[in-house]
Amino acid sequence: MANRTVKDAQSVRGTNPQYLIEKIIRSRIYDSKFWKEECFALTAELLVDKAMELKYIGGVFGGNIKPTPFLCLVLKMLQIQPEKDIVVEFIRQEDFKYVRALGAFYMRLVGTSIDSYKYLEPLYNDYRKIRRQNRQGSYEAVYMDEFIDELLHEERICDVILPRIQKRQVLEELNELDPRVSALDDDLDDVESEEEEEEKPVQKSPTPEHYLASAQKREDDKSRRQSSPTRHKRIRSRSPHKRERSPRRRSRERTEREDRDRRRHRSRERDYHVKEKDRDYRHRSPGHEKRSHEKKSSHRSKHSRRERESKESFEIAESNVLRAKLGLAPLRR
User: Fold this and answer.
1) Overall pTM surpassing 0.70 (yes/no)
2) Angle 215-221-226 (CA atoms, 0-180°, nearest 5)?
3) Dist. CA 332–CA 320, nearest whole Å
4) What are 157's strand-pairing partners?
5) Which one in 60, 67, 213, 266 has a CA-CA gap of 20 to 30 Å to 282?
6) In whole angstroms, what is the distance from residue 87 CA to residue 188 CA?
7) How far is residue 240 CA from its own chain's centroid?
8) For residue range 8-17, what is the model confidence (pLDDT) as tens digits?
9) pLDDT tens, 133-161?
């Protein structure tokens, strides 16, 4: 009874929503400890708290095929079928990145092609790191935009075969989706315009005085050659239109010079502090080291306790914000 889909659940792609996960993996999830202890009688309201406790994503791992908590919560969402507004709120969540990954994975499983592109493509701008557990049980770092790209283009993610969706090009030709505009287009245009401005030479319009001066110069050169018995060698002069160093290069050289001076100053300060510490250590009393160690340990314990309390209060405040968006009662400390 605990493993059955809710009575008023709608079929997804003509089948039971739980059947989107293979039977072998589904049976392993039913037998797992996390499913029996944490997912029993779990509702859409309590699912939010469990999703905020996630620390990594993944499918199954180990030789005996153990499911991860992420995959167990995905199957639980397929079983209880939360409302679409809750799933969209999961995807738009910015404070908890694993809640966003859970909502995106569920939307990719049950959503249509248009919904998948509409709600998942904005997540390409999320460049945060997330942890993923592989089949060997070890962890690896991936980026959120990389995970979203795999959801839209790969066939199997987290040991789950993803349903097929139409290509974006087909939907654009049918006028069901607008052409995708990348956030990098504006930056690329700015860079190209800057390069064109740097490479474009400065051309001045000639004036009548310029023509007169050039003609007088040609006449002087002609008379000098005629009067000179030997032919003078041409002296190559520097072109007035030769491009000077670009402002970007000058700023880079100035930055390197400042960094070099800063490192030299830091090394001198470090040598000075090392000498001061050595002199203080030589004149230090025998019991001074013991008293300083006790003082540091007591200060460290107070500081760690204060940090732990502030961290707990901050997590409770963030969870209350998410629960308020979903219309749930706030948590109390």
Assistant:
1) no
2) 130
3) 9
4) 160
5) 266
6) 34
7) 48
8) 888 888 889 9
9) 999 999 999 999 999 999 999 999 999 99
